[in-house]
Amino acid sequence: MKNEIPTGGVLLVNKPKGITSHDVVAKVRRLYGTRSVGHTGTLDPMATGLLIVLVGKAVKASDYVTAQDKVYDAEMKLGIVTDTADITGKILSRNDDIPQRDEVVSAAKSFVGQYMQTPPMYSAIKVDGKKLYELAREGKTVELEPRELYISSIDIDGDDDTYKMRIACSKGTYIRTLCEDIGKKLGCGATMSALCRYSSGGFNLDGAVTPEELEALSSEERTAKLIPAEELFPELEKITLTDFYARLCLCGCEIYQKKIGTSFTCGERVRVYTNDGFAGVGEVKQYPDGTAIKLFMRVV
Questions:
Q1: How many folded domains does the chain comprise?
Q2: For position 256, which CATH number holds?
Q3: Catalytically annotated residues
Q4: Position 291 in a domain
Q5: Does residue 197 belong to any structural domain of this protein?
Q6: Which of 122, 270, 286, 298 sits at a 20 to 30 Å CA gap from 105?
Q7: Which residues share a beta bridge with 297?
Q8: Predicted confidence (pLDDT) per residue in 147-159, tens digit
Q9: What is the DSSP secondary structure assignment for residue 66, as one 8-state letter?
Q10: pTM over 0.85
Q11: Which CATH number covers residue 126?
């Protein structure tokens, strides 16, 4: 497979309903001519919205992007409980006793802040090398420890048994489990009936392309859709190394701050540039002869 992209970049994909995140990755691999492609957060087949795809050497930034906060638009159906916590699952119970709107809004907003959430059995989390949804399909259950998450905000509107929510949350939040937990608090049960990821970190659906739109583009147009990897780190300070220090840095050597005139604190991360452009992200650590910057994420 010929690689047409010397360095790669960030591709914003608007995933349609009915395909997996892996389906998107497979298509991007084919269209860009490289196997070096990965996404930064799975969307279930029923979900739509922003899938950040890293292409080429930008895949090295995957862990950084995955850790960023997300914003979702979700639809919640009250009075229904399913085995998957979304509308695609088997219905376990129904309840026609639906609370009033004010009670629903209050229950939803009570989850803003620190939130202990137990991951659903129907998820891609691995236990002893096997994904939970595979165990669930075999009729097995696993005791899972709740995880501490953070919900920044929940905007909710609706009536009767259907409500739409915009949720800003930390990484690892299962929105269908949040809907299920709201239903438990109300006593009527609830399930997620639709989900769209609007944003992740500093990127949102504006400018994102569907897989079909991407396929219709020429090779040059597709390459132009790649956002430079450096835009993943807008909040980090920037340093530019001279050719001498750039060669040392790219060979894996630490660059002492006293040699290059910087004074960042230990643990701080910076964008590292050479005369050829963005090289990656460096981290400041304490070494025997003082503090130094060393690349821990190289994208060239």
A1: 3
A2: 2.30.130.10
A3: 44
A4: yes
A5: no
A6: 122
A7: 281
A8: 999 999 999 999 9
A9: H
A10: yes
A11: 3.30.2350.10
